[in-house]
Write a structure and sequence with these properties.
With about 100 residues, the protein is mainly α. It contains four helices and no strands. The radius of gyration is 26 Å and the shape is elongated.
Length: about 100
């Protein structure tokens, strides 16, 4: 069985080899120049951090929605306002929350 058809226990790996990494680095240097390489690497690092933060935020928002029984914050607020007899038409979220607290 050749190398392409062997199965890895954790699934297929997509990491480039060291020679491929050197080739990619050479192409970057060729296109962007050596002086722009640190700035480009820093930008990529920041983008990766923002991406990870977005994933983390979406996971926590999903968990919060599940804790509320699958309802979003606004849906839960509308339900509370209906049960308290508060009219929500034309009001902001803060106004509705304060009206619910007054009831």
């Amino acid at each position: 069985m050749d190398e392409l058809h062997t199965r890895h226990p954790e699934g297929p790996t997509m990491m480039p080899s060291s020679s491929e990494m050197l080739f990619i680095l050479a192409v970057f240097i060729l296109f962007f120049g050596i002086e722009r390489l640190p700035k480009l690497a820093r930008s990529l690092g920041m983008a990766k951090g923002e991406f990870q933060k977005g994933i983390s935020d979406s996971r926590s928002m999903t968990e919060d929605d599940l804790d509320r029984g699958g309802k979003t914050e606004n849906a839960e607020l509308v339900e509370k306002a209906d049960s308290a007899g508060v009219d929500i038409e034309g009001k902001t979220v803060d106004e509705v929350e304060s009206d619910i607290e007054e009831e």
